[in-house]
């Protein structure tokens, strides 16, 4: 009996201690006092290091205040939650995709600051049309600018001009023509490919406007995969996998890379950065090991009923400024510098979102012997044609949501029958993120 | 004899009983402190925050009531996650025990330098663990890159997704677990086998035991408690499945990002910011773990003192 009470007393002590230690309430995070001499921490990835060095070099007066840290931004959301819990530790500026920015803009994370009052509207106006769309968040009619786009990544139709000329084919302009051409290719030149199924939520569902991620407002999303805008995509993919012109492997799968290496890739609708960074045309490049003016870009394909908005995007990043920063002036100026500086735009290599920097970046492609023509104008036009009935900035994971579809491709099954399962899955994921899911758009 | 000494000791200290407890606790302090900080503390904290809300990322204790529990129990991914772990445990635990016992008995059948060398050899893979282990396996199981690719091709596999997918996942995870874990268990079992008195083995041999009978009828029952101990540990470890499916889900679409309860808890806490719901799953895992341990300990008389 005596021993029992001793243990009980011990246990009570433990509980008291733990509640005491953990129970201290975190300090309130509102009402920050701004201080222009307060240091600023900037989270970047390794590719942004040269730009960071450039900043420190060109801003010697600010260098002592600014620290650049290379961080895996995939961990941002988790870390922000822990910082919120602790009441301190947030970075002031973060380099991250708009989808990550939006993910961290919900009630639990509540990280990005509205930049509208901080950034000159003349600067905002000079971004490539449509570039900032994915940085805006509208809640109850209030529109906030939560990030500045670093680079943009509209899809274009990459094609091998040499092969197309040799075969005597005309570059398709609609998906319908594309499918017709695929049958012709299958018959006349079997073994040549016109696309890959990897990342299809961006490359095929988005351009079609399949309602998987049609955000009505910050907390309402329209999901209906029985829509013809979805079925026409899966029917096309099933058809082209069957006729052997669409690879079931992803764009970066060694098996698909081999196809490109063997010059069996006739065309592929993919992001604008595929030209420099995937086709490459250098010895250590992924798709093309040599540059022979073989690569050209055409406008992304559209379904014949589509008019203005028929494109998707794949990637492209942005800069956010934290709500918790003590030195917003300096923090914002770094985000502005990183996105608008012409020299920085040239350093990174992907298409800058800021117009004047993009114009300068264009010149780099003129001299590149990989291209049959400069794809820049196509990229700008493709960027303005992005379908707004789909966004990759929803808070749920699209690739998780369309798993039934990707699983079917992996297992050589037709994909169209998986659409109802995708809808169920997407709906579950969206609702878990606090979205209201509607079956028809208002 | 032993019983008599103990009786004397009890008698001698009986009048000053409280003094007996204190030195013991003194020696136990480092362990108790560690357990408090890293085991019992977090467990109780989990229990506490499973009733808290995290609306702004900051806990509001007891504000959630049973909401987090309702959220988790209504989650359509909860049962699949448990089912995945049940499948994995049902395969990995018996497989691990059978092969570890088999290897240990085999090593002990004829003790020599060779058995020592092999014991070390079995232990080496334990050096590779966590994410590195998963990567090693992703290479090993890739029919394009594996050193065993001709074997994989013989079985008809041409792409990694045909090997690493939801159907084979429990087997793949079992192999991975066995690869890293078996060595240390073989070492423990081997040690236990060394502890069997020479005269028992000698008597058995004189009575005409074949090496097989000796292993199965004499040695195996004598290390029974170690087998229970292994079962307990492997079970406790395997229900915590996390890094393997997390990394494998990047290879194949068929393995979900919430494949196991721990991944689901991680998803809730660190992706969705609902630490409360994450804690609910932790509490569930704790209850399961304690129950399993209790069942194993009770059914094997684990703590009874040998006669």
Radius of gyration of chain B: 24 Å
Q: What sequence of helices (H) and strands (E) makes up the elements of chain B?
A: HHHHHHHHHHHHHHH
| CATH T-level fold name of the largest domain in chain A | D-Maltodextrin-Binding Protein, domain 2
Helical percentage of chain A: 40-55%
Tell me the major beta sheet of chain B. Answer: none
CATH superfamily of chain B: MetI-like
Taken as a percent bin, the fraction of beta residues of chain B is under 5%
The overall strand count of chain A is: 15
The first-level CATH class of chain B is given as Mainly Alpha
Envelope shape of chain B: globular
Question: Notable features of this structure?
Answer:
heterodimer, A: 442 residues, alpha/beta, D-Maltodextrin-Binding Protein, domain 2, 2 domains, 5-stranded mixed β-sheet, 3-stranded antiparallel β-sheet, globular, disordered N terminus, B: 307 residues, mainly alpha, MetI-like fold
Overview of the structural elements:
The complex is a heterodimer of chains A (442) and B (307). Chain A is an alpha/beta fold. Chain A folds into 2 domains: 40-146 and 317-352, D-Maltodextrin-Binding Protein, domain 2; 155-313 and 376-438, 3-Layer(aba) Sandwich (D-Maltodextrin-Binding Protein, domain 2). Chain A has helices at residues 2-23, 49-58, 76-86, 98-103, 121-125, 161-167, 175-188, 200-208, 228-242, 254-261, 274-279, 328-340, 342-348, 355-366, 376-384, 398-401, 403-410, 419-432, and strands spanning 40-44, 66-70, 93-96, 136-139, 142-145, 148-149, 155-160, 195-196, 214-217, 220-222, 246-247, 267-271, 295-298, 318-321, 436-438. Chain A has a 5-stranded mixed sheet with strand order 2-1-3-14-6. In chain A, strands 12-7-13 form a 3-stranded antiparallel sheet. A 3-stranded mixed sheet of chain A has the order 9-10-15, covered by helices on one side. The N and C termini of chain A lie far apart (69 Å). The model of chain A is unreliable at 1-29 (pLDDT under 50). Chain B has a single domain (62-300), classed as MetI-like fold (Orthogonal Bundle). Chain B has helices at 2-13, 17-49, 67-74, 78-109, 113-123, 130-140, 149-154, 160-163, 169-194, 198-206, 211-222, 224-238, 243-248, 261-271, 275-300. In chain B, helix 3 crosses helix 15 (275-300), helix 10 (198-206) packs antiparallel against helix 11 and helix 12 packs antiparallel against helix 15 (275-300). Chain B is globular, with a radius of gyration of 24 Å. Chain B starts with a helix and ends in a 7-residue tail after the last helix. Mean pLDDT of chain B is 86; it is low at 1-14. At the A-B interface, helix 1, helix 3 and helix 17 of A face helix 2 and helix 14 of B.
